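Quick one, probably user error.
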């Protein structure tokens, strides 16, 4: 029997509709039931292309024993983090505060009032190598809920208060703050200290692309004449495009590398990574004129158009890491497979070029890579292997359309189309913008966060407004069509109206008229994607420059001051906001 997720649109929730767990989506009914029955709430947050989400689902949520504990003792809620990033942001901050780390699947246990007292990520069903088992955790929490409920409620109150508490140190001591130029310099020196001179990237494994960090370094190099910043960016871009994190056969990049060499990726591919990487490689091409970076822009953009584009013009979220339940199986090859497809001579040459060996580099097979070799554009051999690979069991595709991710992709394709004089990229960007206006706004003229299967849902968050405004301004600067500028002004105006903190500065993650959560955060740190506040300062700066209007200059000035105050301690974590500061001279209030 299906549970309460059977009528949802989210591919992630639909994946769990046949679980024996009596899942609810996030809704008032679930919390009313928890309150009426005096039960704790078990909250699980993930997304449909998440490998470890699949593992926990198979081990625990498809298991009758675990389901019985959850169904008898808890009210269980499933959330797609991509559909509800506001909920995810609030409870991820809890997990990071309580455990010092985060990730997905995110596991939270809380009171019926939504106040969390337990947080973690993936747990196996049974205890495993010192990692507690979910079954034991659930039983122990139920015992505490029965015998020491007041302690758990007090813990929930304290954790909730802690994540709502904000530091006033920087606000109270403006004289001690670094200037904008000093922030840029501090960020650059942090990146230089963390840089891996052998393999590129920053820090050790796992390594994430973080294209906005590379964009900052390239912009900083141009602004300050700091060649070392450009060298770090190029080294990283080269290592990623040569490594296994880049799909040499079909294009696009995987989520991150599990090793320092960029060889073995976590194989899921996400739209936002690829959109932002187009911007990074395009900037490298603009600065250096090197053909290999143009190749990479085209290879990545073509992947998006071929495999992640809806017939109506929107862009899908991404592709799974797993095929037939095995991570990476879709992407790896043996020498025998290659020669069977290409023939003996061409096959041997291909294996030599891409490191396909009998011993393999990943679980007995080989991830194509060009580590230690010079870049070469792909040819007919890659196309033949791509056609061969398509006959394998296809990857799950998360076909929902998210507004902010689509906005990044519109921006990237529009810029690529303009720089490379490639009309089909511009056409795809324009069509996606028309899709958003036609399908992702509500009756009140507000943006919707998600579209799937004919339904737009959930009020847009800060990122949706800020990044969409940036995408519209990019289209305006290319086409000079007034409608793009008018719409950008409208969306930025809604952003100010519904999200700005008029007292302390900055912008909240969700709107003032949205259903409240236990916290209303203002995200500043750039994670896998630039934060809403970073995107907002960039959008406001561009509007100030393009319109020359006092109100936009003042709004930009307020946001620059807020960002500068919030990033004093670790400016390298807010690189997209720093890029806006580099551009500040064109739009000073």
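Nope, works fine. Designed sequence:
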């Amino acid at each position: 029997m299906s549970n309460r997720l059977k009528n949802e649109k989210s591919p992630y929730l639909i994946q769990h509709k046949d679980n024996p767990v009596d899942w609810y989506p996030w809704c008032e009914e679930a919390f009313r039931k928890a309150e009426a029955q005096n039960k704790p709430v078990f909250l699980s947050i993930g997304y449909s292309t998440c490998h470890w989400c699949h593992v926990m689902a198979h081990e625990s949520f498809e298991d009758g024993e675990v389901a019985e504990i959850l169904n008898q003792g808890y009210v269980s809620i499933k959330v797609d983090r991509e559909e509800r990033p506001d909920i995810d942001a609030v409870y991820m901050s809890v997990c990071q505060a309580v455990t010092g780390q985060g990730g997905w699947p995110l596991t939270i246990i809380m009171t019926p009032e939504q106040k969390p007292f337990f947080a973690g990520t993936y747990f196996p069903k049974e205890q495993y190598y010192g990692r507690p088992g979910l079954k034991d955790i659930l039983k122990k929490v139920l015992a505490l809920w029965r015998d020491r409920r007041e302690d758990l409620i007090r813990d929930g109150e304290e954790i909730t208060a802690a994540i709502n508490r904000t530091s006033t140190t920087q606000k109270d001591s403006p004289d001690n703050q670094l200037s904008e130029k000093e922030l840029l310099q501090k960020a650059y020196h942090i990146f230089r200290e963390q840089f891996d001179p052998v393999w590129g990237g920053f820090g050790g494994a796992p390594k994430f692309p973080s294209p906005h960090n590379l964009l900052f370094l390239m912009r900083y190099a141009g602004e300050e004449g700091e060649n070392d910043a450009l060298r770090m960016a190029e080294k990283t871009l080269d290592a990623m495009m040569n490594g296994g994190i880049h799909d040499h056969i079909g294009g696009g990049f995987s989520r991150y590398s599990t090793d320092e060499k960029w060889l073995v990726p976590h194989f899921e591919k996400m739209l936002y990574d690829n959109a932002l990487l187009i911007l990074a490689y395009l900037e490298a091409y603009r600065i250096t004129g090197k053909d290999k970076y143009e190749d990479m822009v085209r290879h990545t953009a073509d992947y998006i158009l071929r495999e992640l584009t809806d017939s109506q013009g929107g862009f899908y979220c991404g592709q799974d890491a797993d095929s037939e339940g095995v991570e990476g199986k879709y992407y790896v090859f043996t020498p025998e497979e290659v020669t069977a497809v290409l023939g003996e001579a061409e096959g041997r040459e291909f294996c030599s070029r891409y490191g396909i060996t009998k011993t393999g580099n990943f679980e007995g097979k080989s991830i194509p890579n060009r580590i230690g070799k010079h870049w070469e554009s792909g040819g007919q051999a890659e196309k033949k292997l791509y056609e061969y690979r398509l006959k394998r069991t296809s990857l799950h595709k998360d076909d929902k359309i998210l507004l902010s991710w689509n906005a990044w992709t519109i921006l990237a394709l529009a810029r690529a189309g303009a720089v490379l004089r490639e009309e089909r990229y511009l056409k795809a960007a324009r069509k996606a913008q028309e899709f958003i206006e036609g399908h992702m706004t509500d009756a009140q003229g507000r943006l919707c966060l998600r579209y799937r299967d004919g339904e737009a849902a959930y009020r847009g968050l800060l990122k949706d407004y800020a990044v969409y405004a940036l995408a519209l301004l990019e289209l305006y600067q290319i086409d000079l069509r007034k409608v793009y500028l008018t719409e950008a002004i409208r969306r930025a105006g809604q952003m100010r109206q519904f999200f700005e903190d008029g007292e302390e500065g900055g912008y909240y993650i969700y709107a003032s008229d949205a259903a409240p959560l236990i916290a209303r955060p203002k995200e500043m740190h750039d994670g896998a994607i630039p934060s809403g506040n970073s995107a907002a300062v960039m959008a406001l700066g561009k509007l100030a420059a393009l319109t020359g209007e006092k109100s936009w200059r003042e709004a930009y000035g307020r946001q620059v001051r807020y960002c500068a105050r919030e990033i004093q301690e670790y400016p390298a974590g807010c690189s997209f906001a720093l890029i806006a500061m580099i551009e500040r001279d064109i739009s000073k209030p």
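The first helix runs from residue 11 to 15.
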